[in-house]
Design a protein that fits this description.
The structure holds 2 protein chains of 2 kinds.
Chain A (H helix, E strand, L loop, with lengths): L21 H19 L3 H5 L6 H34 L19 H27 L7 E2 L5 E2 L2 E8 L2 E6 L5 E3 L2 E4 L4 E7 L4 E5 L4 E5 L5 E5 L5 E7 L11 E7 L1 H16 L12
Parallel strand pairs in A: 3-7, 6-12
Antiparallel strand pairs in A: 1-2, 3-4, 4-5, 7-10, 8-9, 8-11, 11-12
Helix pairs in contact in A: 1-3, 3-4
Chain B lengths: L1 H29 L5 E3 L1 E8 L2 E13 L20 E3 L3 E4 L3 E9 L22 E3 L2 E3 L7 E7 L12 E6 L9 E8 L4 E6 L23 E6 L1
Parallel strand pairs in B: 1-5, 3-6, 5-13
Antiparallel strand pairs in B: 2-3, 3-4, 6-11, 7-8, 7-11, 9-10, 9-12, 12-13
Classes of the chains: A alpha+beta, B mainly beta.
Chain lengths: 280, 223
């Protein structure tokens, strides 16, 4: 009979909860850092959009900042998992990596967590968007900064290859190649095209709407800042699309009245040459 | 290390290809192949802004490219296209009074946007046709327009000029001579085109000659 040494069974390792796993901790800390950085820089996209010259642009920039802040933790999670995977699970050596291990089984808590979190985020963005769209009134009465209710001023915007043209129906249908607006006055744009599809874009006022032939599209703006701003075409419309630009000039109420009077006077003092015989 | 070097070289080659392609196309688009017509200086002139250089450019507009002889005797690739002659690329002196004289040999129709039947951006807001001073022509007697785009830019002065060119009864034979003047500012590059839809049937008659430089559109270099 030989002595046999019986080795006692080793103790079962203490159960490690999922959040105690080293890779989860690593990803968590990376996520936290990226989230903090993302939140701290969430004002940058709105800042890159340039100055704001209207109530509408203020709201667009506010939306941009809030959406950026909301997306920061989501983007941070993706970057954290990606960076951790690249750094820690990178295959080394000249040989090809071994085959993949068995596939993941479903994990009900994590599926529920990301589904509910994503649904809440998407619903928030959806409701926010609906509320913002509903807040854009079309040709309705507006209350100015002094609390006085006034009808909006209408400007008919016509796109034509490759120029913009503005008509003021409330002022004897005077026309201009530059857009002149009084400050703090709600303006209703009736936008259309004489030929192909254009897109009426006042960059610093956050107005961008398609101009279609035979269709009038309405939008409105309330300028809040004096100055000269860019009007561009944002729809590729032909050879000189890049040159389809003009000014939007925001002036005081008094200056606007002077400009209207001058333009009306010019319109009323036109001199025509004798009509040729071939005229239709 | 070898892999990283290979990766870096690949990225560098790719980026160089993109940059060089962009530079090539941006240079080729900025350089027109059309002949350039430089304004002729005719001396100094007194203006409300003081004594200025006065320069003159003469152009003509034709019902087709055979009658207008700037695309060859056979009318070139598009003999039936309306055209400005002798070229559509102009060079104007900076800080000058520029007079443009256009002999308009084409007929016309009703313009779609009456705004371009008016004179804009010239001295006193006027032009002359056969010596008659005017500020607008009837919307149904427009042959073409000469319209310089006023592009907002911090690097060059605004220059928006638009003058309607009245139709002529004797198409291709007796022109309406339209003359107008404006001031140029600092050096810059501008575009001009005809705003009377006189092209082929595409793009609401903005196709064909309206969409090709050398016919009804071109560059203006203020130098």
């Amino acid at each position: 009979m030989t002595d046999t040494q019986v080795t006692p069974p080793s103790e079962a390792p203490a159960e490690t909860r999922w959040w105690q796993r080293v890779e989860v901790r690593g990803i968590f800390w990376l996520w936290l850092v990226f989230t903090v950085v993302g939140l701290a820089l969430s004002w940058v996209p709105a800042w890159l959009m340039g100055i704001s010259a209207s109530v509408q642009m203020d709201e667009i920039k506010q939306t941009m900042t809030i959406f950026t802040a909301l997306s920061a933790p989501v983007a941070a999670l993706i970057w954290a998992a990606m960076l951790y995977s690249i750094l820690k699970w990178r295959h080394k050596g000249d040989e090809p990596p071994p085959d993949d291990g068995p596939g993941f089984r479903t994990n009900v808590p994590s599926v529920l967590a990301w589904t509910i979190a994503s649904a809440i985020l998407v619903l928030f963005v959806f409701v926010w968007g609906l509320l913002k769209i509903a807040s854009v009134p079309v040709a309705s009465a507006a209350t100015d900064s002094s609390g006085v209710v006034s009808a909006p001023m209408t400007v008919v915007v016509t796109g034509q290859q490759w120029v913009w043209n503005f008509t003021y129906p409330g002022f004897g249908n005077i026309q201009s190649s530059e857009l002149v607006l009084p400050i703090d006055k709600q303006t209703d744009f009736q936008v259309s095209s004489s030929d192909v599809i254009h897109s009426f874009w006042i960059v610093e006022m956050g107005v961008k709407v398609d101009a279609n032939a035979g269709v009038i599209t309405s939008t409105e703006v309330t300028p809040t800042r004096l100055g000269s701003y860019e009007v561009r075409c944002a729809e590729l419309c032909g050879m000189l699309h890049a040159a389809m630009e003009t000014h939007a000039r925001v002036v005081s109420e008094e200056e606007f009245k002077v400009w209207i009077a001058q333009t009306q006077a010019e319109a009323n003092s036109q001199i025509e040459p004798p009509a040729p015989e071939g005229a239709e | 290390m070898k892999r990283i070097a290979f990766l870096a070289v690949t990225v560098l080659v790719g980026a160089s290809f993109v940059v060089l392609t962009g530079l090539y196309f941006s240079k080729s688009s900025a350089q027109s192949t059309l002949p350039v017509l430089a304004a002729t200086s005719v001396g100094m002139i007194d203006t409300p802004n003081g004594a200025m250089n006065h320069a003159v450019v003469e152009l003509s507009s034709w019902p087709d490219s055979v009658t207008g002889d700037c695309h060859g005797s056979d009318g070139g690739n598009h003999p039936d296209w309306v055209t400005f002659c002798s070229t559509t690329d102009l060079e104007l002196p900076a800080h000058s009074l520029v007079t443009i004289k256009i002999s308009q040999y084409d007929g016309g129709e009703t313009i779609t946007n009456a705004y371009f039947a008016q004179v804009h951006g010239t001295i006193d807001g006027t032009a002359t046709v056969d010596g008659f001073t005017f500020t607008q022509i009837p919307a149904d007697s427009v042959g073409h327009t000469f319209t310089i785009h006023g592009i907002p830019s911090p690097s060059q002065d605004d220059l928006f000029v638009s003058v309607p060119l009245q139709l002529t009864e004797a198409e291709g034979e007796t022109p309406k001579v339209v003359e107008f003047s404006f001031y140029t500012g600092s050096p810059g590059t501008y575009f001009w085109n005809c705003e009377f839809p006189c092209g082929d049937g595409t793009y609401a008659r903005f196709g064909g000659p309206m969409s090709m430089q050398g016919y009804m559109a071109g560059h203006i270099s203020v130098v």
